[in-house]
Amino acid sequence: MEAFRLTGKTAIVTGAGAGLGNSMAAGLAEAGARVALIDIRPDIGEIAKRMCGDGRELVGIQANLTDREDLQRGFGACLRLLGGVDILINNAGMQVRGRAEEIALGDWDRLMELNVTALFEMSRLAAREMMKKGYGKIINVASMLSFFGGLNCSPYAASKGAVAQLTKAFSNEWAGHGINVNAIAPGYMDTALNTTLMADQERYREITLRIPAHRWGQPEDLIGTVIYLASRASDYVSGAVIPIDGGYLGR
C-alpha cells in the first residue's frame, strides 16, 4: 500500500551498526527512505556502504552519543548529507547488569547518558527541524522493562521507564506540530545486548517457556511495526508504546 511507502523521506537511526538498529535501518531503506546510520563504531561508513544497492541509499556517521558536543556534530552531519530529517529512530542504548547495591555509580551515569539524555537531545534536535515543515516521525526504542522492573538490571529498567514516559510527554507537546512520537518495546531479543542473559541456560530456558511464541525475537521482527510508525499509515497514532514481544506481556 502506498501509505506505507517511504520514498522521498529521510531517516536517522542511532546505534545502527549492528543488531536491532541495523535491521531497522535496512527496513527503512528497503521501503524507500534515504537513511543515515549513527554509531560509535569506526567502521560505520563501510557498514552503510555495504548495505547500499538495488536503489537503497544509506550513509554512516561515526559519533559518540554520550559526548554531547559529538552528538550535535553527528546530527548536523546527518542533516547535511540527507538535506533534512523526516524520521528519527532513537535506538542507541547499553545495558548494565548486576545487583543494585553493587553497580558502580559511574556505570549508572554512562547508561543514563546514552539511554535517556542522548535520546532526549536527539529528539529535540529532530523536532526543531520537523516543526519547520509540520511533519515528522520519532520512534523510540523502549523495552519490556518499560513495563516491569526485571532482575539485576535496575539502571536499564529505570532508563526504559523514562523512554516510555518521554515518548508520551513528547507526543503531548509535538503532536500538534504534525510530529508523531511513538515507541516500540521489544521483548527478549536474540542480540548482543542479551549475550550474557542467553548464556545462562537455565534462565534462557525459563524465559523461552514463558513466551507464548516459544522463541526469542529476531531483529527483523521489528521491521513491519517500524515501517508502519515511520509512514503516513500511522498519522493518527501518537504517544503509543507498542510491545513486540511474542505475546510475553499478555501472559
From TrEMBL:
Organism: Enterocloster asparagiformis
GO biological process: bile acid metabolic process
Taxonomic lineage from the root: Bacteria, Bacillati, Bacillota, Clostridia, Lachnospirales
Name of the protein described by the UniProt record: SDR family NAD(P)-dependent oxidoreductase
Keywords, ordered alphabetically: Oxidoreductase
GO molecular function annotation: oxidoreductase activity, acting on the CH-OH group of donors, NAD or NADP as acceptor
Pfam families per the UniProt record, alphabetical: adh_short (PF00106)
Protein family per UniProt: Belongs to the short-chain dehydrogenases/reductases (SDR) family.
